[in-house]
């Protein structure tokens, strides 16, 4: 390839992937990397090639009629590629329709989900992960009193697992009335995710996976790479834009939401979970995602949350317990009672499960509660992590006339003060 042909290709690459860095006019400094460094990174480490190519590009970017340089006389560049407007606009329109019109049987949503998640399935197997049998998952439940806890411990498999459908509230990944399993890979995450108020109790239980479960891993979508295509190939740009869009989407799906806005803001994530749970192509049992309540660097390393769809959330023995577990909350010793919760079960607490020849087959058990793992966490305080931004203030001197004009423009009347 001739140097001029390489120059044309490199000109296209820089136009698509880079832009001039912003200039701080107060200090006369421009951010970014010089052209030589960009060429060394993108084209060649051969200094002679870089010098020749740099001269060709600078000549190409100089407009002799106006004597202006396209990127400046000595340009500095920053990586700057826009998210695919086509896919972004399509997604925004789909999201608007979900919120304002038809949530169910939405063909626009189905088509858009197919494009995004089908691309992931076909090109990025690392976006999917498997939990093997015996993998522990922790689930937290808030209780207001010790009596409520005692009542739940009588029937632990059903009361500490996913709620029945008629009692299932809406959540980040499920609509009201759709029972799913929300869990975490650490006890700390399990407690933080239920947002317990001070003075409440959180019962944390360990569940074990009984069979392999396949999950979409949102925690890796921000690192989806483009492989097998040269950056000089326009196809790379298409794939890169799609990968950037997916990375942005993955962050949006796990953004913290204030409780007052949760029901409406969870609409998109609920629709995605519905779609993934019923699409046979992916054969998914659930979704793995980062904690919105536990900032990066806090809690256990690599801890995350997991949702198991309704079809994959059945707990062993949840519907078979015929005898309640015996529960005591205190150990009494003379005149002193110590909080010491104890639960006693027998090998005959459950009725035998019969196989019924019917089209309505029961759900296959996917989870098992480890009865010896249950812990009661009394919430005595909450620690917040915040980003503090000061509000600037300056005082200016106004004449009486200027003050009157400013007061009128503010829109306030004297009655407001």
Overall mean pLDDT: 84
Determine the fraction of residues in helical runs and give it as a percent range.
25-40%
Structural class: alpha+beta
Number of strands: 18
| Low-pLDDT regions | none
Total domains: 2
Strand order, sheet with most strands: 8-12-13-14-10
Strand content: 15-25%
Distance between the termini: 76 Å
Helix-strand pattern: HEEEEHHEEEHHEEHHEHEEHHHEEEEEEH
Cα shape: extended
> In this structure, how is the largest beta sheet organized?
5 strands, mixed
* CA radius of gyration: 30 Å
Number of helices: 12
Give a concise summary.
The protein contains twelve helices and 18 strands. With 417 residues, it is of the alpha+beta class. It has two domains: 3-79, no CATH class; 82-392, no CATH class.
Q: What labels describe this entry?
A:
single chain, 417 residues, alpha+beta, four-stranded antiparallel sheet, 12 helices, 18 strands, 33% helix, 19% strand, RES domain-containing protein, plasmid
What does this molecule look like?
By secondary structure, the protein is of the alpha+beta class. The protein is 33% helix and 19% strand. The chain has helices at 3-17, 35-42, 47-60, 85-100, 107-123, 146-154, 156-159, 187-193, 234-253, 262-265, 267-278, 400-410, and strands spanning 18-20, 23-24, 29-30, 33-34, 62-63, 68-69, 76-79, 128-131, 136-143, 181-184, 201-209, 213-217, 286-289, 305-308, 326-333, 336-344, 367-369, 375-378. A hairpin with a 4-residue loop joins strand 5 and strand 6. The longest helix has 20 residues, at 234-253. The radius of gyration is 30 Å and the shape is extended. It starts with a helix and ends in a 7-residue tail after the last helix. This is RES domain-containing protein. Keywords: Plasmid.
């Amino acid at each position: 390839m001739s140097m001029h042909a390489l120059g044309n290709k490199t000109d296209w690459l820089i136009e698509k992937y880079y832009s001039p860095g912003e200039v701080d006019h107060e200090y006369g400094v421009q951010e970014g990397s010089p052209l030589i460094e960009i060429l060394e990174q993108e084209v060649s480490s051969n200094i002679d090639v870089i010098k020749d190519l740099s001269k060709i590009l600078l000549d190409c970017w100089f407009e002799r009629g106006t004597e202006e340089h396209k990127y400046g006389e000595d340009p500095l560049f920053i990586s700057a590629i826009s998210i695919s407007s086509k896919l972004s606009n399509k997604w925004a329109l789909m999201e608007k329709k979900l919120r304002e019109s038809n949530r169910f049987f939405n063909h626009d949503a189905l088509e858009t989900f197919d494009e995004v998640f089908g691309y992931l399935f076909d090109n990025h197997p690392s976006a999917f992960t498997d939990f093997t049998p015996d993998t522990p998952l922790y689930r937290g439940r808030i209780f207001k009193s010790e009596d409520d806890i005692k009542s739940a411990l009588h029937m632990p498999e059903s009361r500490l697992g996913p709620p029945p459908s008629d009692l299932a509230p809406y959540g980040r990944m499920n609509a009201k009335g759709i029972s799913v399993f929300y869990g975490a890979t650490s006890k700390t995450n399990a407690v933080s995710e239920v947002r317990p108020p001070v003075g409440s109790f959180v019962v944390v239980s360990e569940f074990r996976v009984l069979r392999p479960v396949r999950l979409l891993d949102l925690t890796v979508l921000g690192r989806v790479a483009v492989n097998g295509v040269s950056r000089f190939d326009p196809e790379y740009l298409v794939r890169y834009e799609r990968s950037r869009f997916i990375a942005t989407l993955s962050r949006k799906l796990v953004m913290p939401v204030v409780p007052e806005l949760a029901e409406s803001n969870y609409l998109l994530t609920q629709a995605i979970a519905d779609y993934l749970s019923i699409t046979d192509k992916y054969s998914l049992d659930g979704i793995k995602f980062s904690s919105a309540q536990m900032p990066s660097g806090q809690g256990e390393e690599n801890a995350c949350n997991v949702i198991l769809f309704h079809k994959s959330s059945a707990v062993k023995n949840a519907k078979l317990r015929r005898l309640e577990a015996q529960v005591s909350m205190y150990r009494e010793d003379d005149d002193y009672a110590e909080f010491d919760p104890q639960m006693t079960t027998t090998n005959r607490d459950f009725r035998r499960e019969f196989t019924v020849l019917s089209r309505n087959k029961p759900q296959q058990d996917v989870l098992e509660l480890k009865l010896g793992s249950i812990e009661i966490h009394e919430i005595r305080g909450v620690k917040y992590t915040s980003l503090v931004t000061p509000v600037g203030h300056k005082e200016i001197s106004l004449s009486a006339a200027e003050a009157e004009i400013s007061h009128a423009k503010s829109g306030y009347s004297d009655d407001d003060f």
